[in-house]
Every structure is written in structure tokens, then in C-alpha cells.
DNA sequence: CTGTTGACTAGGC
DNA sequence: TGCCTAGCCAACA
């Protein structure tokens, strides 16, 4: 527990291979349910850290909202590389891949 | 200190 | 089903 950003990075790093999480769930795990935007913002600041699988973090619909930040379809390819089916910028069978820190880390 | 912006979310039409 | 609005919190000019 260093600062809010580090916490976010920590949780994102904990997302297992082939799994994804949402801004809202991460924010909820950190205690700020309303701070989903902050999570996304932290991701934006995490560009320099390659150890942070930001591609596993999507919005509540499983939509690759940050795809543009990865450049082209990189985010989608990374997810597909992990066995996640992505179509039209959206994760298919999203619920099956969803990883909720507040539940998994319980 | 005030206003704008953002990788969000929920509710309304 | 799809677009719009309001609420939310934090960083930045």
C-alpha cells in the first residue's frame, strides 16, 4: 500500500493469464467504487510500465475502451493471444473471463 | 480556487 | 437497442 496508483497497478498485475477485469471492480476493490475513471486514468499513466497488463482491463461491457491507447488492434491481439475471443472491440463471453479482485483475492 | 477533462457507470428516453 | 445525461473522483491549466 503505497499510493492509489500503486494499488491499482498491483491489482492489475494480479490479473491471471486469460482473465480480464473491469475498472469498476478494481475501483471497488480499492474502496472507490465511484472512481472507475481514476482506474482508467491510472492505466493511462501506466504506459511506461510494461509489467502492467492494462489490456486485461476493460469497461463494464467488456468493451476494449483503451484499445486506442495500445495502438491499432494491439490490445485485441494480446487478449486473443491469451485465449480471449474479441469481436468488434468487445470481449465475447466476457463473464467467463471476468476476474473480480474483491472476490478472487478474498 | 474554479473549470475542464477523462481507458467509467447507471439510469432515462 | 442505442444515444444522451447526470454523478462521480482526481489531475491539470
From TrEMBL:
Give the record's keywords alphabetically.
DNA damage, Methyltransferase, Transferase
Q: What is its EC number?
A: 2.1.1.63
Q: Which GO terms describe its molecular function?
A: methylated-DNA-[protein]-cysteine S-methyltransferase activity
**Which residue ranges does the record assign to the Methylated-DNA-[protein]-cysteine S-methyltransferase DNA binding domain?**
5-84
Q: Enzyme class, one word?
A: transferase
Q: Is Cytoplasm among the key words of this record? A: no
According to its UniProt record, what is one Pfam family this protein matches?
DNA_binding_1
**Biological process (GO) annotations?**
methylation
| Entries under SUPFAM superfamilies matching the protein | Methylated DNA-protein cysteine methyltransferase, C-terminal domain
Report the InterPro entries cross-referenced here: ATL_DNA_repair (IPR052520), MethylDNA_cys_MeTrfase_DNA-bd (IPR014048), MethylDNA_cys_MeTrfase_DNAb (IPR036217), WH-like_DNA-bd_sf (IPR036388)
Q: Which Gene3D superfamilies match?
A: Winged helix-like DNA-binding domain superfamily/Winged helix DNA-binding domain
Record's NCBIfam families? ogt
User: What's the name of the protein?
Assistant: MGMT family protein
